[in-house]
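ok here's GNAT family N-acetyltransferase, seq below lol
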Amino acid sequence: MSGWVVRPVGDTDWDAAAEVWTAAHPHDPFSGPELQHQTLQQTGWGYRHTALVAQAEGHAEVGSGVVGLGILFQNPGMYHPQRFGLELAVRPEQQGQGVGAALWRGLLGQLRGWQALSVRTLAREDHPLASHFLTRRGFVPGKRFFTSALSLNRAHLDETPFVPTEARLTALGVRVRSLAELREAGTPDLPRRLHALMSEVRQDVPRSEPATPLTFEVFEEAVLNDPGLLPGAYLIAEAPGGQWIGQSTLFRSEASLDLLTGLTGVTRDWRGQGVATVLKLHIVRVARALAAATEAEGEVFLRTDNASDNVPMLAINDRFGFVRDPASISWGLEFEPSVPGV
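and the structure came out like this:
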């Protein structure tokens, strides 16, 4: 068995690290610049973050022979100074050969140095090694999440089931506007209003840790200035009088033609009236138009993810024909407060 050298990621490692990540997580692709951008954001916001790569022995030069990637980070939307997120990826052909174990030893040392209280990661339930790997290291399974995909190559989407809901909301004066349209119209205080809307609708989204407020700085950099954000597909539901009552967003990675939905949410006073359904309808329309414009040879998908207990949104996705992947499980490891790690 080959030995593995674990070291901090270098500036010229990011493309190789992204290739490893995308090979291990093909439905969640990243490019090298996108991974590096996330690291710079974490540092700029003052959060703790580290990224390690694993190389086969004999490939000591930067960017050569990278077979694994391990990342520790802090989630601005579920922030606690001593609780961390973990991302771990190993090339499929090297899995089961000790790469993940070598990366984890390096990351565990960093967690001890930070006096971490916990670390949490996601792993698909159908992965042949993940549950055994995590269980051996003391992780405990928790909340389940579903990634769902809708093929955008279908010749026709039957909108008949959604027409009455759209017509009813239209009659009430509700309309859907895009970020691009709002910018062109010169909407006053646009970034602040968008931040306020997202802050309101995200409060009740099911998640593995309690939600914490997103600062305006984080919202502006992580959402509005995200290179993958599609302004024509950042949609706002607007009620009569200009009140914003819901939102949905689309992003696209440099590494894939697939489209990824961000947060779809509705203000509490308007929930249960079909606003999320109409937003999803508009998102699907925009996504289909974008997919058609790419003239891709293979299938292009619209992807979304939801907690298994987010029953209303899962039901909406099912109505549109989204197909669920095997669930991803949130695994958590708790440390003793006085002596992190064991």
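fwiw The CA atoms of residues 72 and 86 lie 5 Å apart. kinda neat tbh
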